[in-house]
Design goal:
Elements (H helix, E strand, L loop, with lengths): L2 H14 L2 H8 L3 H15 L4 E3 L4 E3 L1 H27 L5 E7 L1 H18 L3 E7 L6 H4 L3 E5 L8 E8 L1 E6 H7 L19 E4 L10 E5 L2 E5 L3 E5 L2 H9 L5 E4 L4 H6 L2 E3 L9 E7 L7 H19 L4
Parallel strand pairs: 3-4, 3-5, 8-11
Antiparallel strand pairs: 1-2, 5-14, 6-14, 7-12, 7-13, 9-10
Length: 309
């Protein structure tokens, strides 16, 4: 195994915290991985990893070597991508994490145009609402909605999605339609108001309903009969008349047009939801990442111009 391959192997062991996981990720036999790290440590005359029955962690030398490896490998990837781009379209495979509803509605339908422009690129698309550790899971780029936590990732704002507060026609017939956010907690309706609660995959916290009143954000927590952690289930529970929800308008546009759902409290809509592309700092100059992020930005600009957001 040459030095660059050994570096890649070492960085994946550190990022995944496991020899076995790194072997699976790189599709190598476990014995090959163990032998390669022993050779690497012998060549460097330094112990890089502390192994226990449950985990693998870097030594001080190992941490210093990991930091240098990530920089060198990023430079190597960028050097190769520059020459690949000079000779034509970027090549290789890009691993991307996407929220399923957004991907199905906007991104996947636009992919034929992306591949027409970049025929030598391949995509591995992962879907879900759970937070993805890009470094640990070897993901090159992710599309994330909402405010971003502080992290070492590079972020580019792609779009902002208008959010709406909606309930089913059946729910409003039973509970009455609130005319102001303050009425949500009052007992002057036929029955109390309920929310379908959305649970954050990152924290397990139940999200609140948010309203913009006199330029400021007002948080409202309502009782719930059901809590979900999936965007499609969230909308489905609202359609079933189980409570009020807030979500990006595109997600329920057809139901609003058909009358199955109705927007309520429109003058106090929550602030638009930011959508950002995030990627590890060492991927910042990658041609593959760059062209895909530009594709995302263009796709959402078209959707906004067409009134689909």
């Amino acid at each position: 195994m040459d030095r660059f391959h050994a570096m890649r192997l070492f960085t994946r062991i550190v990022e995944l915290g496991s020899f076995t996981a790194a072997a699976d990720d790189l599709q190598l036999p476990r014995a090959t991985v163990t032998h390669a790290i022993k050779q690497l440590e012998a060549r460097l005359q330094a112990r890089l990893l502390e192994r226990t029955t449950r985990s693998v962690r870097t030594t001080l030398d190992g941490e210093a070597y990991y930091q240098r490896c990530t920089r060198l490998l990023a430079d190597l990837d960028e050097t190769e991508s520059v020459f690949q781009q000079a000779g034509g379209s970027p090549r290789g495979t890009l691993r991307v994490a996407l929220q399923g509803t957004v991907a199905r509605r906007f991104i996947i339908p636009a992919l034929p145009d992306f591949f027409a422009r970049h025929p030598e690129l391949r995509l591995e698309l992962g879907f879900g609402d759970r937070p993805v550790d890009l470094i640990r899971e070897g993901v090159d780029c992710a599309l994330r909605s909402g405010p971003l936590p502080d992290s070492s990732l590079v972020a580019r704002r792609i779009t902002q999605m208008q959010q709406v507060t909606v309930a089913s026609a059946d729910y409003l017939a039973r509970h009455g339609e609130p005319r102001h956010p303050d009425e949500l907690h009052r007992g002057n309706h036929k029955t109390p108001h309920w929310a379908v609660s959305y649970m954050s995959m990152a924290t397990g916290r139940h999200e609140s309903l948010d309203f913009t009143i006199d330029g400021e954000n007002r948080v409202v927590m309502l009782p719930n009969l059901v809590a979900v952690n999936d965007a499609d289930a969230y909308a489905a529970a609202c359609l079933a008349g189980l409570g009020i929800i807030q979500l990006p308008r595109y997600h329920v546009m057809e139901h609003l047009q058909s009358g199955r759902l109705r927007e309520i409290l429109q003058p106090w809509r929550p602030a638009p939801m930011p959508v950002s592309a995030v990627y590890p700092a060492h991927r910042q100059l990658s041609a593959r990442v760059r062209v895909f992020v530009e594709f995302l930005a263009e796709t959402f600009r078209r959707a906004e111009a067409d009134g689909r957001l």
